[in-house]
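Attaching the record inline, Q. Sequence:
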Amino acid sequence: MYLSRFMKNTILIIAAFLVIGCGAGLTHTLVPDYGERGVVSIAVMPVTSKTDDEAAASIFRASLIENLYFKGYGKLTPDTVDGKTSGYARDRALSNVSDIRPEVLGSLLGVDAVMYFRFDDLSISPGYLYAPVTVSASFELVSTKTGETLWTSRYSVTERTFGITPRRLEMKACQTYEMAVEEIMEKSLATLPAGPRYVEAPGSGGSTGALW
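Structure, as predicted:
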């Protein structure tokens, strides 16, 4: 039986949705005595990215700061962190404020730890009818007292988005990308113990919390 090109494409899409899946991987490390390290305040350093997507990096940094705050840690705004470190880095000919030693950052910022975050992959690869979306990110929490790494997390997710038209495919790929970034944030920070200011919200059953 003869099938039109549209029908063939529609059948292909339906078949693809039946086998659609996503690959994700999460790895993390945590020092055994984390609860005794006295981490109360965390400064989130500028996000580094192999993709040079400054807008995405800025948005993610702000979101990371808020998530850490609601997880029970004191926070500093990006302007405060950058304002107190950029001059130091410039005077010492450092290419990036993240090159400043953690112990020095602790003195400059008055925090117990610094959080480094890096986008290892941030890509949308549009093709015919589908667009693979890949996001990989790494977190590292370092003590400003000892320079020791207290916690790390790396999460990678690849999802395939399908659409009938290029425009529809582009829109769905962008939505999928945003969801992938949110998933990375949620799943990675779930492996970091709550801070000392975390208070479980009434009736939350341990799933959410608030800061006093």
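Residues 5-23 have pLDDT under 50 and may be disordered. The longest helix spans residues 166-189.

More tomorrow.
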